[in-house]
TrEMBL record:
The gene is rpoC1. Pfam families: RNA_pol_Rpb1_1. One of its GO terms (biological process) is DNA-templated transcription. One of its GO terms (cellular component) is DNA-directed RNA polymerase complex. This is DNA-directed RNA polymerase subunit gamma. Residues 8-84 form the RNA polymerase Rpb1 domain. It comes from Cylindrospermopsis raciborskii MGL120. Keywords: DNA-directed RNA polymerase, Nucleotidyltransferase, Transcription, Transferase. Coiled coil: none annotated. One of its GO terms (molecular function) is DNA binding. The lineage of its organism: Bacteria, Bacillati, Cyanobacteriota, Cyanophyceae, Nostocales.
Length: 112
């Protein structure tokens, strides 16, 4: 409906989006509430990886968490076998889950 530069700045009455250049629309980001947390690929795979920097973890470890391949220990509690930010495979987690489940807080994937 709105084409070219002459309509710039107008807000579409049907969808509520501002008419502007496509390159601007591709770089604007918003927030929506989702049922499960997600990580945007720009912040994960970008050089440098902002998520890895914020978490002070290597990118490979962060990718394992984001893709639900590993569990991460956030609170080792009294368990002497666990360390803060330690990655656990699913097999490792299943071995120790029953003995320490109530004592520790584990999050999976992008919930970190």
């Amino acid at each position: 409906k709105y084409k070219r530069v002459r309509h710039r700045g107008i807000v579409c009455e049907r969808c509520g989006v501002e008419v502007t250049e496509s390159r601007v629309r591709r770089h604007r980001m918003g927030f929506i509430k989702l049922a499960a947390p997600v990580a945007h690929v720009w912040y994960l795979k970008g050089i440098p990886s902002y998520i890895a920097i914020l978490l002070d973890m290597p990118l490979r470890d962060v990718e394992q968490i984001v893709y639900f391949n590993s569990y991460v220990v956030l609170d080792p509690g009294n368990a002497d076998t666990l360390v803060y930010k330690q990655l656990l495979t699913e097999d490792q987690w299943l071995e120790i889950e029953d003995t320490i489940y109530s004592e520790n807080s584990q999050l999976v994937g992008v919930e970190v």
